Each structure stands twice: as structure tokens, then as C-alpha cells.
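dumping the sequnces here before i forget
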Amino acid sequence: MSDHATPPHLSDHGEHAVDESQTTPAARALFGWTTKPWIGKAVFWGLLAVSVFLIALEPIIEMMTPEGEHFRHAYFSIDGTTGFNGLWGFGAFTLVVLAGWPLGRLLRRSEDYYDDEEEPAGTEPHP
Amino acid sequence: MNGLIASINPGLVLILAGMIAAVTPIQRARQLLALIAPVIAIVLLLLAQRETDLATMSMMGFDMVFYRVDSLSFIFGLAFLIAAFINAIYALHQDSPLEDSMGLAYMGAAVAAAFCGDFISLFVFWELTAVTSVFLIFQSGTRAAYKAGMRYLGLHVLSGVLLLFGAMQIYFDTGDMSIRALELGNPGVLLVFLAFGIKAGFPFLHTWLADAYPKATVVGTVILSAFTTKLAIYALARTFAGETSLVWIGAIMTVYPVFFAVVENDLRKVLSFSLNNQLGFMVCAIGIGTPLALNGAAAHAFCHIMYKSLLFMSMGAVLYRTGTAKATELGGLFRTMPWTTVFCLIGAASISAFPLFSGFVSKSLTMSAVAGAGFLIPWLMLLFASAGVLEHSGIKIPYFAFFSHDSGKRPKEAPFNMLVAMGLAAFICVAVGLPAFFPGFGFNWLYSILPFASDPYTMRYEPYTGDHILTQMQLLMLAVFAFALLQRLGAYPPEKRGIILDTDILYRKVGYGFAVWAGKVWSKVGPALAGVVGGMGSRTFSRLEAAFSPRGTLASGGLYNSMAVWTVVLLGLALLVAFFIR
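..and the predicted 3d for all of it:
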């Protein structure tokens, strides 16, 4: 619960250089882009653009579908509104994540709360 | 085909292989057995005649059906056997006779149970899954795993006893022991419902899942994740299809684990909560009970077995290489484990139901069935949970293990056999999720082996419509955007060490505290009482103390003999009670 339980790398705000000497070539090729300094911003704005695009696409396609037909197949009235799924997803995700703050305070206990939880017995399983 | 061979339940092949493996000292021979047995079993299953009682027996007046294949049991059996094969590859790096043999017997018991036609034989294999699988938890060798294993065993033996009680009651009421559609109301049926509910992880009966699974061995958790709960889903689909209360139970099951998963630090425990959440989708679909919904449940079970195994395998590889699966200790592992990262991401995309991955084609069926039946609130809950799945399994798992803050850990890439197993599971996740470019390809194949493949709604069902793809992408992309936004604002709760309380506090703290208090009272009252009844009480107490106290024989850990005895005693007692109570 308290800060002493936070390992050093989690309080590190990027001021320490990351050791890339052991990064494999495959890793560099596949995921090297995730370590670029601009990646946070790029992903954020990219996702915003994609989100806006996906919401905007809906009325556009609806306009282009022939008269009398519907592009969206809604079961109830609420799910037929424009961007319903997107807004629901955004809201649900935000709620779940923000609920993590009070829930963590309420339910998190130290790892030895149940006396036996982390006590090793006999040999350690992982060499 | 030879009549005798045709009557062999494929599960028995695996159980037999497990028994041989137990006495085979050579590692490679044992592993060859583990690889061949599922293949033979799949061949047997493919050749089996459908809708016929292939093996029957009459005992004590009960008609038992040991082997019967129909389209519902077929897809579950097939998924189990594919998982058994993949698990065998995943375990190739280790030399553990107990784990190999118990794993095989456990998988065999689950397969055999899926093909049983009556409650008695179902009960036998139902209990066999419990007593064999618990060794996969014990094998971790930690005190925590031992205790969690005992709690797991307790609940699962209870589930079996309830099943037997319920089945007996049903038998005495109707004179029919066969597994068939049941209606809630009769107390016997209610007991069967509860028995299935324990294994399926119904709310408040779910604690064993997130308690025991993360404490099992690296391989053990992968094996456990595929069978027990899906067997319960199968049993529910068989007996309680269309039971409306299941719609609500399922919807609740999808929602609450999401909140536990967001604050949990142990990533294998996060996956266990996610497993519970996915079961909710299947339970909800079973509650709807239409052919489309049951197809949705079966398809989801099939896909879920694959992608959940994949996710557990990737976290298992991380645990194997780093010795921990805690989010606070991990981060930046993609640098040296790129292939594990790729496979984990495929599993994450599948469980989040991104188009082109298996979760999309299976979850669509369920969502459409729930919406089509007019259940607005459960449908909204499932949609909420879909965003929640994306949060904990789609983002949290890969992000905190492989990216996020660099932990400085530079483990080796997972062993080659683990990569092959993950690759196979990943292949299935993608292959099953692809659009049907030609008949029989992609999701078309999956839909063709569903229990009601000829249902007109399912025949016409096309997951890849513009409408579906767009709404699903809206849901997912805006949720991912919410993640980016919250990270940017610093509103994402930091990972912290610690455990999260669950309802099992009721018996682990409150109940345990009561037991300790009762023990203290007894230690005062006992001797006094003992003087009266000739010392019997205190002798009994000291014997109990010697066996069960934290310093006692059974708690000393690592003593597999005493555990086996303890297990058999528990089961035997349960059986005696069940048989002689009437």
C-alpha cells in the first residue's frame, strides 16, 4: 500500500537510460518503434484521429445506403444512435480504470495478509 | 471399424496414457505418450458414430452410458483434445512424472465426462477431474499452493457430492438417470445446478478459480484453464439451456471480474479473472437457449480454450524465465522475448474480439442472440464487459509484461517447445477468425462444427458485415483511446504490490478465525470434558491437532503421500455420505 512497496523501476520517470544492448534483432524490428520518444504522443493523436474517423464514418455510410435500407442493424432503440458502441466502450473503459483507485484502497492488502500466501515451502519451483 | 474400438470413449485413451505415464521413468517416452494419446483420441472421435449409445452398462439397476457423441459434445471434446495436444508440446521442456500423468488423467477425465450419457458416469469423471487436477496446483511446491489446492479440492469435491445428491434425487423422482434438459424447481435439479455452478464459477462460488489457478505450476495453469470450467459450461448447455436466470447470472459474471482484474497485480490472476468473465458470456448465451445462442456458447468455448491457453502460456513463459508474473516486477520484456510478445498480442487481440481474430466471430453470435432475444440490460452489461476484457486482457497483460516501464530484466526467449505450442494456439486463433474467403474457410469451418450448424439463423449468420465491423471497431478503438488518454492524464492507477480481497475472505479469515477460536475454546473445554468421558476428547483433539494444525503432518507441505491419502479420504467420505444418506 505504501510507497516502499513500489519497485525502483516504477518510480523511474524515464530519467535513466534503458539498456538496449541485449535487445534482439527480431525485437528491434518488431517492437523497436515502441521505444521512440515521440511514440506516446503519436499513439495518442493517432488513436484520437481513428476514433473520430470511426464515429464519423457511421452517418456517412448511412447517408450512402439506398433509400429504405439501413446500414445499421439495431435491436433496441438505444444501440441505433450514432457512435453508441464507441461512447459505451469509452465510458466503460474509463469507469473500470477509474474504479481501480477506490477499489485498490478498499480491497488491497499487503501480500502477507493471509499468513500463508507467499510463504515458500520446500524447494522453490523456479530455478 | 472394429466394434470394440468404436466403443472406447476417447477420454479413456488419455486416462490410460496418464496411468502408463505415472510408471514410465523415461522423460521422452512419457512425453511421446502425451503427444500420441490426444491424436489417437481425435481419430477415435472423428470416426465415432453420432447420436448412438456406443458403450453402455447396467449396474445396480442404473443404465449407464459411457460413450455417446452428438454435435454438442463433439465440439467440446474436439476443443479439449486439441488443447491436450498443445499442452503436451508446451510441457516438453520439463521432466515431471507426476505432472505429466496427472495432467493426462485430468484432461482424459474432462473429455470422458463430455461424452457421458448419464449422471452416474458423469459424476465419476467429474470427481476424477478434481482429484487429478489438484496435483497440478500442489506441484508448485509452495505452502500457498498447497493451501489453495486444498481449498480448490474442497469446493470441487463438494461440487461432485452435490451432483451425486442431485442426480439421486432426480432418479428417485423420475426413475431416469440420463443427462437431459432439466427444469429448475425440484430440489434435486437445484443441487445439480449448484454443482455445475461451482465449476462454472458462478458469482460467490467463483473464488477457487482466481485463488488456485495462479498458484499452479507454469504448465499446470495452462492445462487447468482449458478443462474444468468448460466442462461445466458443456454440462450447463446440455441440461439448463433456456433457463432465464442464467442470462442474469452470466451477465453478472462478465462484469464483476473486470473490477478485480484492474487492481490485481499478479498477471496470471488477472487472466483467471478474465477467464471468469469469459465464462459469463457463455453462461449468458446458455440462458438464452436458442440454437443461435447455444452455437454462440459452444463457439465461444472453443475459441476461448485456444486464446486463454495462449495467454496463460505466454504468462507461463514469462514466469518460467523471470520467476514472477507480477506486473510490478515486469515490463520491457519484449526486448529479449519478442516472439512470446507476438503470441501474447495475438491472444490479446483474440480475447478482445478484434475483427480477423477468433473472439470476434464467436462473441458476435452470443451478442446477437442476447440482443435478438430482447434482453437490453444484460446486453449492455456484456458490451460493458467487452470493453473490460480489452482493459485487462487486451491491454494490461501485454502492456505491463512486455512494454511499459523497463524492469531491467533481460530473460532469455521462451524455450522452443513453448514457442511452438504458442504458435499453434495462435494459428488457431487467427485461422478460425478469418472471413470465409471460400466455403469452409475461416469462421465458416468453426460454424460448421457447431451444435446447431443447420440452424437457419446460424447458416445465414455473417459476422463480417460492415455494421458489425464498424460498431466493434468503435467499441474497441475508443476504449483503447480511453487507455491512452488516462495514461496521458496520469489517471491510470499504478501497479502496486499486494493482494486483493475477494469473497473468500469469508472462510479464509472469518471462518478460519472462528475455527481458531473454536479450537482455543476446545483446548480449554476439551481436557475438562475429557476427564468426564475418560480422556477420549483430548486424545482425539491431539490427534486432530497433530494432523491438521499448522505444525501438523498434513500442513508440512511437500508430502504427497499424505495428500493423496487425504484426498482419497475426503472423496470416500463424500461417497459414503451420498450413498447411505437415503
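Chain B touches chain A through 88 residues (CB under 8 Å).
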